[in-house]
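As promised in the previous annual report, we have extended the structural survey to additional targets. Below is the entry for Alpha/beta hydrolase fold-3 domain-containing protein.
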Amino acid sequence: LAPEYPLPIAYEDSFEALKWIAGHSDGSGPEPWLNRYADLGQVFIQGESAGANISQYVAVRAGAAGLTGVRIKGVLIVHPFFGGTEMDEMYKFMCPTSSRLDDDPRLNPAVDPDLPKMACEKVLVCVAEKDSLRNTGVKYYETLCGSEWEGKVELEEAKDEGHCFHAFSKNERAEQLIKKMVDFITKD
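The corresponding structure token record, generated without further manual editing, is:
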């Protein structure tokens, strides 16, 4: 990631990776395992923190571009990072071409005219009560609910937990969150 590979490279590389996967849909892609075993009609995209932001972008971009070869059934947005409320040095570093905090659709999906084109059937937004990014995750959920996107969106909140807690501790709430994510993927 940045500074060696500044944004928007992470976004573009992630979309290119999905296009590469889609290139296997006819069984003649460069990766034999994908050609033989992958069910590209059952694709899920998942990301945590900044990765959740990128996952959301990839799903929207796939829909806006009319990407064929994969069917994105769902996107898991876990403890997402979206734009904040202050134009701090980190934001200026990450988005040097943005003139305002709320004008970049990568960081503020509410201003993305392509949001209704998001290429998936359902989205799971996971937030944690003690995560400083909780409110931006809830706002993203509300944005999806109020948009013209025609999929199903769920919000899952873990009480008394912080950012990406399930990656660092093996407690009951971590197990519940992981089970919720598995259920989201395995159930229609």
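The chain has one domain: 9-186. The CA atoms of residues 82 and 107 lie 5 Å apart. These points will be discussed at the next consortium meeting with the crystallography subgroup.
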